[in-house]
Amino acid sequence: MQKSVNEPDEFDPATSQKTFRISLGDINEGRILAILMGKMEKQAPNIKLECYYSSRDQVPHALATNELSFAVDPFIPNSKDTNSMKVFSDRFVVAHRANHPVSKLSEMNLDEMLKLKYINISNRKRGASVVEMEMQKMQLQPEIALRSQHYQVTPEIVRSTDLCLLCSETFAKKHGLSYIEIPINVPPLEQYLIWHSSDDNDGSHIWMRNLIIESFEEVSSL
Q: What is the DSSP string of 90-150?
């Protein structure tokens, strides 16, 4: 019997030796890799995973040429050849050390927010974060005392200084950081799983796609 065009390819993760390549920034590596590898270890002991960050403008080509299997990013590529779905959404908070002066506030107002010094995490030399952009619309500018590339270094800095971090609530919780709500309306932090449309019905891609989705769901439920 001939297989339907829309019928997924058969795939057995227990026997496969496939290698998947995923573009992840360090914050998403920290979010899901431990969970994802735990799932893979149980279901697919011989499948390998390679994770590295691919610049946003290179993702569509990398997916089309199988240099990447998936990408996870806050922005969806402007390409008719890629598909995507939202896998993560969380609110921004101001994370701070225990016993920081801001911890004495029952809630923070805008004036108090502007008194703080912040860490800005970005792999770009310049550019505002989502929260900064919302503040700039109000003609306000937070004081950025440190600009760095990687989120994973920030918990130690926050715990040992008076610097604050604008981050997702789940990140603050995971790293045991105290935090307070932001006193302005800020769009939620969102992440999208992106893949090439030619892989829609590939059984191995469907399996890994579902595993990544499940991993983000577990993060969101923490």
A: E-EEEEE-TT-GGGG-SS--HHHHHHSEEEEE-SSSS---HHHHHHHHTT---EEEEEES-
Task: Say whether both 101 and 168 belong to one domain.
Answer: yes
Handedness of CA 40, 29, 99, 128 (dihedral sign): negative
pLDDT digits (tens, 9 = 90+) for 103-113: 999 899 999 99
3-class SS of residue 9: coil
Q: How far apart are CA 105 and CA 39, in angstroms?
A: 41
3-state secondary structure of 7: coil
pLDDT tops 90 at residue 116? yes
pLDDT at 2 over 50: no
79 lies in the same domain as 104? no
CATH assignment at residue 164: 3.40.190.10
Q: Where in the sequence is the domain holding 81, given as residue range(s)?
A: 19-89+190-220
| Tokens representing residue 22 in the block | 């995923």
Largest CA distance in the chain: 71
Note whether residue 6 is domain-resident. no
Contact 66, 37 (CB under 8 A): no
CA atoms within 13 A on the CB side of 70: 30
**Number of structural domains, the chain?**
2
Q: How much is the CA Rg of the chain, to the nearest whole Å?
A: 20
- Residue 105 makes CB contacts below 8 A (sequence gap 6+) with 112, 180
